Amino acid sequence: MTRKSVAMLVASLRKESINLKLARAVERYAPQSLRFDHVRMDDMPYYNGDLEGQRPESVRRFTDSIRAADAVCCVTPEYNRSIPALLKNAIDWGSKPPAENVWKDKVLAMTGASPGGIGTAVAQQHLRQILAIQGCIVMPGETYISFKAPDMIQPDGSIADEGVREFIAAFGARLAALIERMA
Questions:
Q1: Whether 59 contacts 90, CB under 8 Å
Q2: pLDDT, tens digit, for every residue of 53-98?
């Protein structure tokens, strides 16, 4: 069985990020047919069209990673009812120039965790809008986690709560099925 590669984008820079823990849980409970590769976003300069002639190495590495992946999984917090600048900057670099848009026809799943009651629902709605315009095949449905306890997901991605564990596993299974369908 050939494993499908999924570029994992974690849009939080915090070392103890609940979204990083969620990304690890997605990896842990997803089908074995998927292989997750964390793709770095924090070393790219802000998008500037003046740099297009000589793209920084960090940008080339990022866009090559997205282009090579079978799919992308975005795990994002919600900042001020939207996505973090880190993720928006990565999307902007990946969308330029339009003829080389790495998002076009790329399968993409999104999730996120927040201590708030509605999780990252508004950020995901905004992200869905941005990426649909870029031509992504965005996985339907909403998958956000209200992170009510600091130890809900362990640093290694393990989850004690069976309902949460099954919810995350179902997310991974839907992603695997969508990748297969779109291949």
A1: no
A2: 999 999 999 999 999 999 999 999 999 999 999 999 999 999 999 9
- Asked if 159 and 25 touch (Cβ cutoff 8 Å), the reply is yes
Query: Tokens 């960090």 identify what position?
Result: 58
> Cα(173)–Cα(30) distance, rounded to whole angstroms?
6
3-state helix, strand, coil in the chain (%, to 5): 45, 20, 40
What is the C-alpha to C-alpha distance for residues 65 and 40, in angstroms, rounded to an integer?
Answer: 9
Element (H, E) at 162: helix 162-182
- Count of positions (residues) in the chain: 183
Element (H, E) at 87: helix 85-95
From residue 53, alpha-carbon distances to 47, 50, 64, 92, 168 in Å are 13, 7, 16, 16, 41
Residue for token pair 């992946």: 69
